[in-house]
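Troubleshooting log. The previous structure file for this entry was overwritten by mistake, so regenerating from the original sequence record. Sequence copied from the archived sheet and checked twice against the printout by T.R.
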Amino acid sequence: MPTNILKYQDIMNQIHQTLILSSHTYKCRVKDVERQILYDFRVHTTPVSTIFSIGLMFDENKNHLVRFDFGENLRHVNDYGTENEKVIYGSHVHFNSPAGKYVPKNVIPVGGIDEFKNIARIKEALDRFVIYTNIQLGGD
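Regenerated output below.
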């Protein structure tokens, strides 16, 4: 549940109602009420509607619970510096990974997650992400 409903709704409205995107990072806190875990909900936009990221980061240790990076031209290296090194091209997902651009971590292609197959635009991805991560405004 968002800890600041108005800030959360502002993020959703900004993404849904903006015709021309710019580079910006929207943030608010989300709390897992059942487990008492606090997350940073982050949406990073660019001027290109098909290049963006959406994620939940643990507030306590700043690791990503989940972060989707969308973009056809993205490139990520799995198993960096090992004999199993492999390049992943395009949109991908980080699960339980450390923050930091230069910290080795592994990803999976977005196409490997049924709920996000064939998703390329931020508005639809944001709505699917909210459902996928079970972010609710309150109550049941």
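Helices lie at 5-17, 122-132. Archived copy saved in two places this time.
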